[in-house]
Design a protein that fits this description.
Layout (H helix, E strand, L loop, with lengths): L8 E6 L6 H15 L3 E5 L5 H11 L7 H25 L3 E5 L2 H11 L4 H12 L6 E6 L2 H6 L14 H17 L4 E5 L4 H16 L10
Parallel strand pairs: 1-3, 1-4, 2-3, 4-5
Helix pairs in contact: 2-3, 3-5, 4-5, 4-7
This protein binds ligand Z5A.
The site of ligand Z5A has 27 residues, from α1, α4 and α8.
Length: 218
């Protein structure tokens, strides 16, 4: 099921560590609130009370999590997130901006952990009931540059992975974006914050036009 079947619009933000997704979506949300645009900002994992508990398990350093367990926990979080937050908001006609979604599982568990891609795609289908974003923005940044932005010592279980893992994730994202250019837009997230902000809103306005007043954002 694509978001086009709902009155609302589903947009996802993806990218390697430290790319600035969270910062940008917060800035955008402030502008949308000022304009009175009904929207929801949410994240995968952790967009529901159940998901917050799953997120803690997934990201706490020092816990042994086998790759398949990791994949299934992200999918369990996602099934709850779609049912409890995303679908209801889309049914109400809202703009839903989700920080990570199905493509994170392909990039991290597929390209990063080498789990079979077909299996991940099948599980993505199952956990979302086939729900797909109309637009996915890749906040692209070299792995070294993204990781260097994160708080030293405060790294979670996945951020602590080897540089090679993060490089595979980034390569995966770039390949995914190339495979489906209709859905993806790539943004150079290494640029200064205000430049990224301008490009982010331009992508939204170009792709979604006046829907949700996205062309009114400065
Ligand atoms: N994961 C997975 O493996 N499988 C899945 O299916 C899903 C997720 C859904 C979620 O953690 C983790 O789960 C994630 C993928 C994995 N990996 N890790 N770790 P998260 O939600 O906590 O992490 P994240 O989404 O990766 O957030 P992040 O790494 O913190 O990145 P971000 O949100 O893109 O960046 P930020 O917090 O907005 O900015 C980071 C810092 O950079 C911050 O200090 C900003 O002030 C600064 N910043 C932002 N923009 C700029 C610019 N333009 N210039 C300079 N500095 C900047």
């Amino acid at each position: 099921m694509s978001t086009q079947e709902y009155p609302g619009t589903f947009v996802t933000l993806e990218g390697p560590e430290g790319a600035g997704k969270t910062t940008q979506v917060k800035l955008l949300s402030k502008q949308l609130t000022k304009l009175g645009v009904p929207h929801v900002v949410t994240r995968d994992p952790g967009g529901t009370p159940l998901g917050k508990q799953v997120r803690r398990i997934l990201l706490t350093p020092g816990i042994n999590v086998a790759p398949m367990t990791e994949l299934l926990l992200y999918q369990a979080d996602r099934a709850q997130h779609v049912a409890e937050v995303i679908k209801p908001a889309l049914e109400e006609g809202k703009l839903v901006l989700c920080d990570r979604f199905i493509d994170s599982s392909i990039a991290y568990q597929g390209y990063g952990r080498n789990i079979d891609m077909k299996l991940i795609k099948d599980l993505n289908e199952l956990s979302t009931g086939g729900l797909r974003p109309v637009l996915t923005i890749l906040f692209d940044i070299q792995s070294e540059d993204g990781l260097s932005r994160l708080h030293p010592g405060g790294h979670d279980r996945i951020e602590r992975e080897a540089l090679d893992f993060h490089k595979r994730v980034r390569k995966g994202y770039l390949e995914l974006a190339q495979l489906e250019p209709e859905r993806w837009r790539i943004l150079d997230a290494a640029k200064p914050l205000t430049t990224v902000q301008g490009e982010f809103t331009k992508i939204l306005a170009d792709k979604l036009g006046s829907k949700h007043m996205l062309n009114a954002i400065e």
